[in-house]
Amino acid sequence: MDSAPTALLVGKIMDILENEAYSIAAIRDEVDEIKQELVSMTSFLEDVEGQKTQTETQKAWVTSVRDLTSDVEDIIDEFMYHTYEQQSRGRFARWLHRTIHIPKNLFYRRKIANKLHKITKMIKAIPERNKRYALDDVVGTSWDDISKWVKNQAVSSLFINEDELVGIDGKKQTLTAWLLHEEQHLTVVSVVGMGGSGKTTLVAKTFTNETINRHFDSYAWITVSQTYVIEDLFRSLIKELHRTRKEDVPADLISMSYRDLLQLLVNYLESKRYLVVLDDVWDIKLWREIRIALPDRQLGSRIMLTTRKEDIASHCFGVESHVHCMQPLEKNDAWELFSRKSFSTFDGKCCPPELEKLAWELMEKCKGLPLAIIALGGLMSSKKSAAEWSKVYNGLNWHLTSHHLLEPVKSILLLSFNDLPYRLKHCFLYCSLFPEDYLIRRKRLIRLWIAEGFVEHARGVTPEQVAESYLMELIFRNMLQVVERNETGRPKSCKMHDLMRELALSTSEKEKFSVVYDGKEVLEDIGAHRLSIQTTQGGIKSCIGMSRPRSCLVFVTGIFSFSFSKSLPSGFKLLRVFDLEDVQIDKLPHNLVYLFNLRYLSLKGTQIKELPKAIGLLRNLLTLNILNTKIEVLPRGISKLLNLRLLIMHRRTGEYMAFKTAHGTRVPFNISKLKKLEVLSCVESEGNIIRLIGNMTQLTRIGITNVKERDAMDLCDSIQKLKLLQCLALRVSGEEEFLDVNALSSPPPHLRKLIFGSKLQKVPPWFSSLQNLTYLYLHWTRLDEDLLPHIEALPCLGRLLLVNAYVGNELCFNRGFPKLTILELFNFPLLNKITIAEGVMRNLRLLTLARCMELKALPQGFEYLSKLETLELLSVSMQLIESIQEGGVDHPTVKHITVITNYSLKCLIRAHHSSST
């Protein structure tokens, strides 16, 4: 576990040595020597990472390596900072400095060389010290011991007490129905959820049900775990199958070969209806290995498996399959379970009034995780006073990692963390830098990971694609929870379970990976390179105890203003990440521009009005986010940021359904020098900017506002050159202005998102060719022509947002729209009828109707929208509202909808699921 952050750090240092070698020529011998040591250290760390058991000596070595490589990074970065200071001076100043300060420079370089030489000696001394004390055979905490403990816990679920079961009756009925279904072919039933969610308990209670036992001729429960030997699994399976039928186990089972075991299993199950449970599956490879031993003779046999990984549960097994996703316990069920465990020794076995508020707060920390509720409830059963309960609540992090009664929770959660590849470990730990219950946006997290250097380089794949694969892996493993998805099902935001976050925080601090500062006490320097400030009362100046941080993320709540001192602390000069999103500041520290190491700067949502004129000094900057700030013009120096990849900067103003809802930012004419720029949104159209954009061929996302009619030809010509473009947003300068884009004969082939805000005389013919389009937003186009026939066949369109886009009185969805999940219709003053044919928009989940006052009833064919979950109504006619209320003509057609929201009446109607749902 220790080696993950260290191995990453080694890789980052090697990148520095490779890419900045020209600046460190004077200390090349020391650099080359330490580089060779780092290569050897990387191999060692990867070897240690692969071991399931680590000796205490190896753990100590890893800790030493981590600390030393951190020191190396500090030295190299300081040297680079010194070199940068020399280069950033003017030509005359540099000549004068070299003339006067040559002795000082020589002394400084010699000092750096001596530091590196000293660290090299210390690195070499580590294995020599290990050898001298001969401690290699002393074993520390064993992975196998933890795995064995977890395996025993799983088996004990077969005998769990009824008082630890709450809220599983409905889930058990679902599984039972799948097992007893008349389908005769072999069927796989998967139960998936995070560690401690009750998967094994649920399956165990289904497995031991008498009705299930009578239905199958033979049944077996096998706990797989992370490490298994297929021959041993076969032996366990044979033993269990014989035990349930009270038969003698073959005497020579231990000595049987793989072939003999396989033959025995196939012959035994040949004529039986069987049920096999594979508990705790970590790798789909298991299915490929065990499938051959489980014949399908169309007798109604079933296989159940539990797993923490969604990609395993949803795997194509080649047979009929069902997936049950474990959900957190509802609040009332969670409280009932917590009360049973916490207050069993109290008078009346119920919560005393003075503890109720604390008890609810503590229970909610578990976020509906049964294992955590049971363990925490057991711990609290011995605590009688409010003071004792407060102590546990305030020190939950310590109790989780140190108290023996919470060991089950720690071990179960640690198992998931330990199973992560080393690159994913630091990505996961990084998520704990966000506050509790914080919604972490996918794009933000990915950009931060890239700036930190966590994302490996892969030929032919963008860093964003690699980082997203990391994120999806964490989601599949149920270590991050998806809160919101976009129209294509792609995660938009996620969060950490509270207890996962507590575990990550304690691990991060122990590994010196990061520290969270709450502003309540003096911050001590623990050597961590990442700092998250989460406060209602402090600022950066209160963190001067933190020396040489590489990342600083600020989250301020509960106050309306926040300010820096005039300059950042000197220890912040090596920052790579500076994230001030939504921090209410209006001025930046004057020395911000000297953070030469800075890769990521976010001022999103701040009150900043201008960027420093010397912004061009931040030559390593990759991401600059000034979205929704008060910055109207970029300084000329922005064109010096030659490594900049993402420039995000539009400002939202005005009413959503009014014509003008966004303002771009004015950029200098030399913006086209940024050849690496991939995202430019949103830029104000002026001068030759539209023609120049055509030269920025790496752009994948572009937004342009204030476009003029006269710009149409130049615009089409520039867009046609942007072959990598995925997102395009265009807005004209006035609501009566037309923008003729018909000249765009071949739009960018990878276009996924199109936002168009301009009056249109007719639908551009190229709309129908956008085969990869997932999102279409037409704003104030006021078309006379029916748009729908032009876009109905688009195979990927998932969201359609139309705002005053059509002036006709009828919309007919006659065919197509196979992937559409979100349809939003705003401001259709003449629309009085919507028709939906059967089979059209069959995947629609959300429908919004707003400012459609002439619409007196639901769309004709509304009943065909069987998957619709949400209906939103805003400023619609009273006739339409009355038609869906109890007794209304359309009320029967909305019964299957989960949520109906009528914003105009400020009320929320929740419809119950129909019996078929």
Automatic annotation (TrEMBL):
Keywords: Nucleotide-binding, Plant defense, Repeat
The protein, known as: Disease resistance protein RPM1-like
Organism lineage string: Eukaryota, Viridiplantae, Streptophyta, Embryophyta, Tracheophyta
Pfam hit, one: Rx_N
Statement: the UniProt record of this protein carries the keyword Metal-binding: no
GO molecular function: ADP binding
InterPro entries per UniProt: Apaf_helical (IPR042197), Disease_R_plants (IPR044974), LRR_dom_sf (IPR032675), LRR_R13L4/SHOC2-like (IPR055414), NB-ARC (IPR002182), P-loop_NTPase (IPR027417), RX-like_CC (IPR038005), Rx_N (IPR041118)
Domain (Disease resistance R13L4/SHOC-2-like LRR): residue spans on this chain: 569-872
The Disease resistance protein winged helix domain, residue ranges: 433-504
Superkingdom classification of source: Eukaryota
Natural source organism: Prunus persica
Single biological process term from Gene Ontology: response to other organism
Coiled coil (residue ranges): none
Classification via PANTHER family: DISEASE RESISTANCE PROTEIN RP, DISEASE RESISTANCE PROTEIN RPM1
Disease resistance N-terminal domain mapped to chain residues: 9-93
Domain (NB-ARC) ranges: 172-344
